[in-house]
Specification:
By secondary structure, this protein is an all-alpha fold. The protein contains 16 helices and no strands.
């Protein structure tokens, strides 16, 4: 008699567990997104110095710049998985898929604007997401090899252009500052679309294949070693705008837009995705990775919650959301634990993240997802930042 009321709850938990652990979900992508979300939380809330690969005490700074680039690369992965995986849509289906992406991009941009209005001392990445989704649309139906080639060309062409643009004093004006906020120039889209194209290429290559997973790990490691080993000296916190052009361009420093950062950190992101795919494809002890995968199953919700929580806590404790001193209160661990616990509870008791579900419903006005043979497995992995 006492167990009857719990039966529907147990069934719901079992159903949601199967949703996140069954063959209809690319668990490795969720794991990588969970790492990216928590990495960005660490970059926001910890005082981190410069990274030196030869000094283990500095390795915590690995999240600087790399978490956001991993986030952008995973955006491309999700874009590809939501539009057919290795079988992209064509014809009318391609048009519908593009319309849905445009609607999602607009909604994500609006959410980003709302987060900017909270005035926390962090660069909000969502406006950049919106722009790079739209920029990737012309190549949405291309095969993997062309997408990887396009990503490489963008890095080589856009990096010097962005470094040159960053040196302009216009960004210091009110108009430049405001424009930069609303187009997400802290993560400059002319270059960052390369990471999204690389992620889209991974999805088109077929991420269920162990060969693709090992290739992602190997290629990513090769690019990371090449980018970081060619960079002169240890990472610097000096603003690229204050350096000579060649020095600002030929660097792997985080957030520099240097060509070596794009190669090294882009490769790092690809390698992390490869590792996560390989770990989860083994299918052993899925509960070990489940907490992080729960966060990664609702990355937009988790990202928004951390910014909103930051604004509320800083306002209550310090009187203002725009307080760098909030980091002195050591908020990283409690906010990380809260993010993980809330994500696990929500994913088991409810299912899809609330913002992911809302954007999915609103973007459905663009019509059903287009496909050219993509199976239900691919279509169920909705586009999530």
């Amino acid at each position: 008699m006492t167990s009857a009321p719990t039966t529907p709850l147990r069934r719901r938990i079992e159903r949601n567990w199967r949703r996140l652990n069954g063959p209809a979900r690319v668990a490795g992508v969720d794991l990588a997104r969970g790492l990216a979300v928590l990495g960005m939380l660490a970059a926001h809330l910890l005082w981190l110095g410069s990274l030196s690969w030869t000094e283990p005490s500095t390795w915590g700074a690995i999240v600087n710049g790399r978490s956001s680039i991993l986030f952008a690369t995973l955006a491309g992965v999700s874009l590809g998985l939501s539009t057919g995986g290795p079988r992209p849509p064509s014809g009318a289906g391609l048009g519908r898929a593009r319309l849905r992406v445009v609607i999602r991009a607009l909604l994500i941009w609006l959410i980003g604007v709302l987060l900017i209005s909270l005035d926390v001392p962090a660069a909000i990445i969502l406006p950049t997401y919106a722009v790079i989704f739209v920029l990737a649309l012309p190549l949405l139906a291309q095969r993997a090899s062309r997408l990887f080639l396009a990503a490489a060309i963008v890095v080589l062409v856009a990096s010097p252009v962005v470094v040159w643009a960053n040196a302009s004093p216009w960004w210091e004006s009110y108009e430049g500052w405001l424009t930069g906020l609303y187009i997400g120039w802290n993560y400059p889209f002319p270059l960052w679309v390369a990471f999204t194209l690389a992620g889209l290429g991974l999805a088109r290559a077929g991420m269920w294949s162990r060969r693709v997973q090992w290739a992602a790990l190997g290629l990513g490691m090769l690019l990371a070693v090449a980018g970081y080993s060619l960079s002169p000296g240890a990472e610097s916190s000096e603003e690229s705008a204050d350096r000579p052009f060649l020095e600002a361009w030929w660097t792997a420093d985080p957030h520099s837009s240097g060509v070596l950062e794009a190669i090294g950190s882009g490769g790092f992101a690809i390698a992390v995705i490869g590792v996560c795919l390989l770990l989860c494809s083994a299918g052993r002890l899925p509960w070990l990775t489940f907490p992080l995968r729960a966060v990664g199953s609702m990355p937009l919700t988790a990202y928004v919650l951390q910014i909103v929580g930051w604004a509320l806590a800083s306002t209550i404790l310090l009187g203002s959301a725009h307080e760098h001193a909030f980091r002195d209160l050591d908020p990283f661990l409690p906010m990380t634990l809260a993010t993980i616990v809330l994500s696990v509870v929500w994913s088991l008791l409810v299912g899809q993240g609330p913002l992911e579900a809302l954007i999915g419903r609103l973007s459905s006005f663009g019509g059903p997802p287009g496909s050219s043979g993509g199976n239900a497995q691919q279509r169920q992995h909705i586009l999530e930042p």
